[in-house]
Amino acid sequence: MSIPIAVTDRVFVLTGAGISAESGLPTFRASDGLWAGYNVEEVCTPEALRRNPALVWEFYAKRRADCQKAAPNLAHFALAELEARLPGRFFLCTQNVDDLHERAGSHNLVHMHGELAKSRCERECGRPPVEDHVIYANLDQVPRCPCGGRLRPHIVFFGEIPLEMPRIEREIAECTLMLVVGTSGSVYPAANFVHWARQAGARTVYIGPEAPLNAGAFTHIVEGKAGEVLPGLFTVA
């Protein structure tokens, strides 16, 4: 199967946990409600951060370490190559907090759920997030912001607003082709993106090992691992 991209097309790509799973990183949460052995409510809510910041940082330090050991896979490289072939007409939005897209060579992208390799002030004092690759052994090692607040992972917790939504909405409105890779269609607002794109008249393509929950919104569904399907899938005019 080959999907054509015309000279007039603008491409919006949404990626989810499935693409990172092919690099060995665990998907967001298992069927038992645990996330890498932790209860999600204990490590990924604002209340959890206030109640037990040491546990939250313990969890994200482990995730940061896992991310640093992982490597981009063929799907990440295929998307970076597609971006290079579509200068000014390609935008990538990822639900993932790892930096595998960047390490594969992607540039025009946003992380709507935050980034593992950054930290920001827990007081939300207005200072921008800072690059932070340190694997902290305990809470005492976590630095403080110049305002005095302790740094927190630059992650969108449950109950917090996803990042860059105005820009994401503009890109969806302008796209003529949406590609969704490795996301189940169960996490909102990302699950709505394909509906917004269809309403604007875009073609919509899904790639994953099985059909997503919002399968009816796609014009094409390609079942398979992204690393096997994405390379060579598109014909660029």
Q: Your description of this structure?
A:
- About 30% of the residues lie in helices and about 20% in strands.
- It has about 240 residues and is α/β, with parallel strands linked by helices.
- The protein folds into two domains: about 1-25 and about 70-115 and about 160-235, 3-Layer(aba) Sandwich (Rossmann fold), CATH 3.40.50; about 25-70 and about 120-155, SIR2/SIRT2 'Small Domain'.
- It has a six-stranded parallel β-sheet with strand order 6-5-2-10-11-12. A three-stranded antiparallel β-sheet has the order 8-7-9. A two-stranded parallel ribbon has the order 1-13.
- It is elongated.
Count the helices. How many? 9
**CATH architectural arrangement of the largest domain:** 3-Layer(aba) Sandwich
Question: What is the CATH topology assignment of the largest domain?
Answer: Rossmann fold
Mean pLDDT: 93
Taking the sheet with the most strands, its summary is: 6 strands, parallel
Q: What is the CATH C level class of the largest domain, in words?
A: Alpha Beta
The outline comes out as elongated
**Helix/strand-derived class?**
alpha/beta
What order do the helices and strands follow? EEHEEHHHHEHEEEEHEHEEHE
**How many structurally independent domains?**
2
Supply the CATH superfamily name of the largest domain.
TPP-binding domain
Q: Helical residue percent?
A: 25-40%
